[in-house]
Amino acid sequence: MTFHLNRAMDNGLMQEEAGAKLSHLAFYAGWPKVFSAMPVARQVFESRAN
Question: What is the total count of domains within the chain?
């Protein structure tokens, strides 16, 4: 997920949009999977902020 999220953000995906995609994905993949993905997304956001 780290690679794909970084690549999407390189192509213009904003942090707010990525968060919205995660909440939308929860209805298809299930909330537990999205809760597992959230720390990974947070790590990507923090690494890109520096």
Answer: 1
